[in-house]
Amino acid sequence: MTNDLFTSVSTGSAEEACTPEIGYQPLAARLRPQCLADYAGQVHILGPGKPLRQAIDNHQLHSMIFWGPPGVGKTTLAKIAAGHTQAHFIQLSAVLSGVKDIREAIEQARKYKRIEQDTVLFVDEVHRFNKSQQDAFLPYVEDGTFIFIGATTENPSFELNNALLSRARVYKLRSLEQDEIVSVLGRGVVALGNGVGADEGCLALIAAQADGDARRALNLLELSADLSEEGRITANTLKEVLQASPRRFDNGGDLFFDQASALHKAIRGSAPDAALYWLCRMLDGGCDPLYVARRMVRVASEDIGNADPRALTLALEAWQVQERLGSPEGELAIAQAIIYLACAAKSNAVYMAYKAARSEVAQGISEEVPLHLRNAPTALMQTMDHGAGYRYVHDEPEAYAAGENYFPEALRERQYYFPVGQGLERKIQEKLEYLRERDKTSTIRRYK
Mean pLDDT, to the nearest integer, of 370-388? Predict the structure, then answer.
């Protein structure tokens, strides 16, 4: 590796960067790449001709946000970019730093600017800074005091100020592929030394359990080596190490809502097997089953509606089973409901009708209730013609008052609900078409 790349990279002076580390360092820290040649993954932004790769190679860094899950190399990439361009590197953590630390970093950057050396200010977990702390960077990003690089696991669109986002380019980092992690683990075995080795398939198993996180993979490798006999990592060693290694799931974060969205879309797309997969992924990651049950009720109304009204009933019953019995009976009931919803006839007619009616109400004026539809519980109201001319449908042929109007006069003949020709809504569609034909041919019509 080209260790000279980091001679100007530090959290303090350049001399401090050259000082050897003293004491124990985790394997993941010891193996942190120092050049792009050793960097694993992210070819979609670092491949030949990609804008970020060109910016680094041409020493033309710009302010940027690295957005991606843990352990994919956000901090490492920031350090490599700074080292490659011979920029001074300052690192802050939004968890530990405050306004005082930001001011000190700004003063340090100013000193380097006076000697015409660029500074990269890297802020880890930048989404944890509040609005005022994020605003503190703006003038210095604007005037070039430093090049700002932020790292976040959360969606920048939701967690970062628009003003900061407008001054920085967002790069999405992806989880590492299994073969990329296996390659990193191979380097880790060499770095451990002392005759450490691994049986065939063990590195692939660690990579699978790491779930796209290189740091987790190296930590698991180091622990496996510590527990192995005579430095040989075997399948028996991994059984003990990997038994409590969960899949990645940030309850309430981006990954949580991405998986919830995938579950909803699989049901909407009539794909029961995919829907079950996403259900199990969410439950495996620690998602509250009641959240899924509540989401199923929404799906039943939004995507199925009157095409199969039983879907809503089954979703509510699954929710009730989960509340009353808990796991595992409740989870099985939710799985049953999800399969039914996925296989049911689909219609968003109710959802679209509700949206259209709400939009009409929100944008319109407060129309008066027509007199014939008003209640008339008192003699005074009756003298004011409340309820006058109302047609009681049970006294009409087929219990339908053909030609009657139930809208305010200004909105007569509005239609929000357009049932689709699937499931029960096909019958509803046919009935409504029949009733509208009766309206057209009726000799009694209100608001002609």
Answer: 84
